[in-house]
Here is the input.
Amino acid sequence: MIYDTDILIWVQRGNEKAAKLIDRDEDKYLSIQSYMELLQGAKNKTHHKYIKSFIHEFKFSILPFTENIGHRALIYVEEYALSSNMRSGDAIIAATAVENNMNLVSSNTKHFKVVKDLKLNSFKPI
Here is the structure.
């Protein structure tokens, strides 16, 4: 399963339901885009170290940005940016899930529901 950035943010905020979801999964994946978003949101170097430690402790595998993912993400932006406000980061995350034939779990399903070939799992944090 690939986790959207928001799921890890929920865990960092202390949401036990999100932590249990991740903990139950043996094969945990993140798009390189989500990893970058987490690091970009860090407030300082200590928070950077925490994020890196968190990714390592939970044994996430980081999926790289490939040519196919880039191409598919571009198609998603072309198809959905005007009609559904698809942003490039979400397009990359969705494309990573589709290209790797994995489900994406997110609490922001409205960002992804327009992508017809995406297997999307909704997470309700509360």
Observations:
- The mean pLDDT is 96.
- The CA atoms of residues 71 and 95 lie 9 Å apart.
- The beta strands are 2-3, 28-31, 60-63, 104-106, 120-122.
- The chain has one domain: 2-122.
